[in-house]
From TrEMBL:
Lineage: Bacteria, Bacillati, Actinomycetota, Actinomycetes, Kitasatosporales
Gene3D superfamilies to which the protein is assigned, alphabetical: 1.25.40.80, DNA Cyclobutane Dipyrimidine Photolyase, subunit A, domain 3, HUPs
Domain Photolyase/cryptochrome alpha/beta, residue spans: 1-130
Protein name from the UniProt record: Deoxyribodipyrimidine photo-lyase
Recorded family membership: Belongs to the DNA photolyase family.
Annotated source species: Streptomyces gelaticus
Record's keyword terms, sorted: Chromophore, FAD, Flavoprotein
Stretches that traverse the bilayer: none
Cofactors, names only: FAD
Length: 453
């Protein structure tokens, strides 16, 4: 018998319930990845993620070849391609990981119908993308948790499944051809500092993270100069690493750093279960509706370009452009700045992030944006982060700002977060914009808009 393992956000051989079930189910397996035209049409296929994906596919192919198989890549509509492969090979089963977006549900429904007509059964596996499946834990009378703390409590109680070994052998049926694998070098418009993708790179990064920096994560994770987070997010987004394995291995190390790190992975599951229950939250305000947003094109352009005149905001936005990645503290600050200080619709910021972020993820991106904008699950939706206070706290020596905003490199630690206070020739000597807005007026405008004054 033949089965198909349809890879989506699980581009790995280790701890992959989809691949494992497909191998157990049949004598021969087709490890299939479809370059889905449906996803391309959504604009989700931005250059940084397309480049990282090319690395992931090359490495997945290598991992399968080490086990006697190889990756079969096809381009087209995912449902049509899967059906054609099933018909051509007589596959009796197709395995896929369950997704959380509206698109993933649509894909599952389409596959179920099309495959049934071809005599092939669809098997949808949970806890492939997330550690705990959405819907697995729910509060009384509701289909998902809207508040993180009670979610976390239950999430810790139910625990994460054990890590699955990679299959020893993957045998392909004869005569199945692959289209050429996409190459990273062929993708235009990629951020110059983009990280390398793929399961091998991800596993290497995870091992060194667990051996060293994890121990200091509890106190250190917001230290912008120290670059003190794992940078595992793109590997988790593409599934080069499974969230369950990352959690199990972090727990084995133990300690306060590991506890804090695992809690962040619970946030990932939390946002996924919100989106699974409320797919419209990718577009619509989740809880509190705000529709009186301002829209000033010059301000938005300055924010995108990292030229707002607020050094920490600009540093983070320039890092995003250069690396396709930004630490969480930076994301929170720039999102708060756009949505609360400039009072701009969170969708404008979420779109820009999705254009650039290598880990750009519908659940994590849209719901974190909504959290920051105060339309989502934040229980204190009207708190406002001050970029100067944040700078003094999380980049006290201005190291992070100097790295990304070289115009300010010569300023003293005590000056660097408030360059507008410089006067005379010292101000004239730096080519750096004046602040887009006064923080006090912006706060007053925000409070008026929210009816807090
Ligand atoms: P670490 O601090 O090492 O954390 C480990 C892992 O925990 C991360 O890789 C991630 O999978 C998860 N995690 C950490 N923080 C969060 C969080 N707040 N929400 C959900 N999961 C979290 N994360 C994405 O993966 N994709 C996105 O598109 C995305 N967009 C964001 C947009 C905004 C406005 C904000 C405020 C946050 C966003 N995040 C997003 C969450 C978070 O910023 C990143 O996951 C994190 O910065 C990735 O860096 P890291 O891997 O070094 O994280």
């Amino acid at each position: 018998a033949v089965s198909v393992a349809l890879f989506t956000s699980d581009l790995r051989v280790h701890d992959n319930p989809v691949l494992r079930a497909a191998v157990r189910d049949a004598d021969a397996v087709i490890p299939l990845f479809v370059r889905d035209r449906g996803i391309r049409r959504t604009g989700f296929d931005a250059p940084n993620r397309r480049a990282f994906l090319a690395d992931c596919l090359a490495d997945l192919d290598a991992g399968l070849r080490r086990r006697g198989g190889r990756l079969v890549v096809r381009e087209g509509d995912v449902v049509a391609v899967a059906r054609a492969v099933a018909v051509a090979t007589g596959a009796r089963s197709l395995h896929i990981g369950s997704g959380v977006s509206g698109y993933a549900t649509h894909r599952e429904n389409g596959l179920r119908t099309a495959l049934a007509a071809a005599g092939c059964t669809l098997h949808v596996h949970d806890a492939v993308v997330t550690a705990v499946a959405p819907g697995r834990i729910t509060p009384a009378g509701r289909d998902h948790y809207a508040v993180f703390t009670p979610y976390l409590r239950r999430w810790e109680e139910v625990g994460v499944r054990g890590t699955l070994a990679a299959p020893r052998a993957v045998r392909l049926p004869d005569g199945v051809e692959s289209e050429p694998l996409p190459k990273r070098a062929e993708v235009a418009g990629v951020s110059p500092g983009l990280a390398d993708g793929g399961e091998s790179a991800g596993r290497g990064l995870l091992s060194s993270w667990l051996r060293g920096p994890l121990a200091d994560y509890g106190d250190g994770h917001d230290d912008l100069a120290g670059d003190a987070t794992s940078r595992l997010s793109p590997h988790l987004h593409f599934g080069c690493l499974s969230a369950a394995e990352v959690i199990n291995r972090a727990r084995q190390r133990g300690g306060p750093g590991a506890d804090a790190f695992v809690r962040q992975l619970a946030w990932r599951d939390f946002h996924h279960q919100v989106l699974a229950a409320r797919p419209d939250a990718a577009r619509e305000d989740y809880r509190t509706r705000h529709d009186r947003w301002r829209s000033d094109e010059d301000e938005i352009a300055a924010w995108r370009a990292g030229r707002t005149g607020f050094p920490l905001v600009d540093a983070a936005m320039r890092q995003l452009a250069y690396e396709g990645w930004m630490p969480n503290r930076g994301r929170m600050l720039v999102a708060c700045f756009l949505t609360k200080t400039l009072y701009t619709d969170w969708r404008v910021g979420a779109r820009h992030f999705l254009d650039l972020l290598v880990d750009g993820d519908l659940a994590n991106n849209q719901l974190n944006w909504q959290w920051m904008a105060g339309t989502g699950t934040d229980t204190r939706p009207n708190r406002l982060l001050n970029p100067v206070v944040q700078g003094k706290r999380f980049d006290p020596h201005g190291t992070y700002v100097r790295r990304w905003v070289p115009e300010l490199a010569e300023l003293a630690d005590g000056e660097i977060h408030e360059p507008w206070k410089l006067t005379g020739p010292r101000r004239a000597a730096i080519d750096y914009p004046d602040p887009l807005v006064g923080l006090a007026e912006a706060r007053a405008r925000f409070e008026r808009a929210r009816g807090l004054d």
